[in-house]
UniProtKB/TrEMBL annotation:
Organism: Paeniglutamicibacter psychrophenolicus
Family to which this protein belongs: Belongs to the ComF/GntX family.
Region span, Disordered: 1-22
Domain of life (superkingdom): Bacteria
Residue ranges with Basic and acidic residues bias: 1-11
Lineage summary: Bacteria, Bacillati, Actinomycetota, Actinomycetes, Micrococcales
PANTHER family with a match to the protein in the record: DNA UTILIZATION PROTEIN YHGH
Domain Phosphoribosyltransferase: 192-286
Name the UniProt record assigns to this protein: Amidophosphoribosyltransferase
Amino acid sequence: MKPRIRPDPDAVYHGSPAPRSDPARSWARLLDALWGHRAARAARAGLHGTAALLFPVDCVCCRRPDAAVCGPCARSLRASCLHPRRVEQRAEALPLDGRLEPMPVVAAGAYEHELAAVVLAFKNHQMPALGRYLVPPLARAVLASLETLVDRGRPVVLVPVPTRLRARTRRGYFPVGLLLSRLRRARVLPAGVQVADLVRYRVARQFTSAQKGKGRRARGAVRGTMHAPVTPLLARLAAAGTQVLFVDDVLTTGATLAEAHRALAGSGLRVCGAAVLAATPAPDEKHHVRATR
């Protein structure tokens, strides 16, 4: 009996099919057919088993062997991030508008269970390959933000909240930038939406400690640490009336987003809100992240 192959529901966020006019389309279809052939699947299964034997790995969520994220945990992660939600009311440090309303933030999911375990491993355990599990949730949060927070018909720029050079050097990559790069390659962003690093940490703050592990009061000390350098790109975006949507990984108090918002004040850009992977209370609150089942 021929085994049934389930389509990947998140495939749209990992890449786009070649257009019909592309001469490489026939080659892409041929390669796709070869990849899905029974013999190719058996060969991949054999290589996977050999790799698991030579380089043993456990699921970062439940510690089952042989996969960085096992099938059940991957499905739970996906199910927990199918419906992005507004979370600005739980972050007391977010900037307020003229009506004393906090800056709107859309989160893909709650910072708990499988999502928290994968985000932690992706950021702090040098496992950039886990980004494939985080791109679809971030894509849903970004698309929901574009649908509800920005004015249609005006250009939009996605601005990743920066990380310090100290953290980037330790990790070897910029987590949010890496996810946005994969999201852009998947071609799921609407026309007129671009990505630009407009905000940076000041040089003197590049090697200070990160926000991770700090309490709510200590997180407020981030004020004055970022700036938005005046560049030709910034001037062009401001002249075009571009709207800004910040993108970050985890929302705790909102102090980092507030500082990024302050850094762009006076630039001529209008900040419409933010999209994040997960929203969580501060670490000093009792909040359990399930690491094992």
